[in-house]
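Hey, can you fold this?
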Amino acid sequence: MKKTLMAILCAWVSATSFALAGAEQEMLEADRAFAAMAAEKGAPAAFAAFAAEDVRMFPGGSQPYAGRDQMIEEFSDWPEGAVLEWSPVEAVAAPGGDFGFTWGRYIYTSRNEAGEENVGHGKYVSVWRREAAGAWKFVADIGNANPDPAAPE
């Protein structure tokens, strides 16, 4: 009896671990596709495409807000030529495999009124949810600045 119970428990743990690893990989792939779209079509288009309708945004330096429509409105004044690039570092999935987060680092590049390039570095967390149709959408996003991680201290 004990051996049977232990075998069932081991099988369940193995299946759960496999499901979580699969969900984590899917979230990383979604985040990479999100970043690729931002590189190709710009951050506003990518955020609009990958955000859930009920998204919560926590932008650095301003107040949080909710809703995809509000997010699109906030991106309407995206600076001409500004580029937001990012790369996920890690994903963590909830036990159900349909919710989790990715985090990574970003670089934001823009030009000031004199045409000089400004480069900012930071980190972000995106919370992801698998939608009913199977696609991953982010439901919350937060980012904040930090020094260039490659710069000597």
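Oh, and this one too while you're at it.
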Amino acid sequence: MSEIYSKVYFVTGGGTGGHIYPAIAVADVLKAEGAKVYYVGNKRNMEFQLAGENGYKFLHVGVSGMPRKFNPKFFYWGIRLVRAILYSIKYIKKYKPNAVFATGGYVSAPMLFACIITKTPYMMHDCDAMPGLVTRRLSKRAKYVSLAFEKAKRYIQNKKTIVTGNPIREGFKTLSKENARKSLGLRNKTTLTIMGGSQGAKSINNSAVEILKELVQDYNLQVIFQTGKKNYDEVLEKLKYIYPAWEQECGVLLKPYFSDMISVLKASDIVISRAGSLSLSEICASGCASVLVPYPYAAANHQRINAKNMLENGACVYIEDKELDPNRLREALISIINNPTKLNYLKQNASYLAKYDATDKIKECLESIK
């Protein structure tokens, strides 16, 4: 006997966690309401694994980022884009979604073009203070547009634009710090997380690994270190040289990637991070103080804009990537660790910026689409 669903939705967006996790957060609340949800993305990207881990049927579109130069690769990319749009049209005709929810980026583009061609309604969400190219170009036809930042509205030509904050997963609302630490095998003590987004950040890794021994031994911190898959071996070799007893002393939890970032951030007191919008939303939802080092080559400078917004609200310490070295990072961390008043101030201001109802607001918009 086939299952009966109240509605059918597609969610699409990928390439990085900043596009994927908001899509999954919205997919989860739609599924909880009895809808059937399909994830549309590229099976060569991390969305394929994450969609599967969260129980969603995956619909593959073979799309890649647009080349920045007009050369033969551009024509090859154009052919692949057309093919991906045709596949997306095929998926729409087969599964007949009531609406499509897209979190922007090149992965979502083929499905959005397919929606325009087939007159399928769609909603878009953009995480950044400076919306991405796909959002700016295709949001005009969307039924609704949701944004993480008020200042992003100036770039969107759609009267049904709402500022919701970023959709976050339910665990950020419900998981306690104590239980988060238990799930990671950590002690109940001041915890620092070092991360550079889902791909890692070499400049953060290189500075942080130099001072890990000092942070653990002199400042009694326990450290969660997400290196990124490409950087793990290099960080591990440096750590073995600088801090040979790191495993025996149990002060550092080192992994290339944590699939359960809810537990990681909820276990943390201080986070060193890039400034992708979703990372910042999850840091705020976890009530963490942060040291932010925006990626200097992000499109439209959006990471600097995101981080400056946090700084203006008293929720972070800000370091430019070109200024980052072990001494500057040590100085920033010690200014927080040795000053409980500052630590609590940063934590409280981060919590004030958290928007826990974004997912529900987006769900309401999607369910209202006829």
